[in-house]
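Input.
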Amino acid sequence: MSPETVQQMLRRQPFEPLELRLSNGEVHQVRHPENAALGRTRLVIMYPDTETDRMVICDLSHINAIEAARTS
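Output.
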């Protein structure tokens, strides 16, 4: 996925939480745009509500799809 496409999704107004589907089958959520840092080849996703402030680094080439996050 191109950084421009990811950036466009992160900057949408109003922002809607996203799910990123990776080539290895993992699914990661971006609940707020401030929880994501976009580089040229990677996206860092923070989960600040977890006990250990979990962080995931995703290579943009492994993002297969970006969808609206499912709400429970």
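The CA atoms of residues 38 and 44 lie 6 Å apart.
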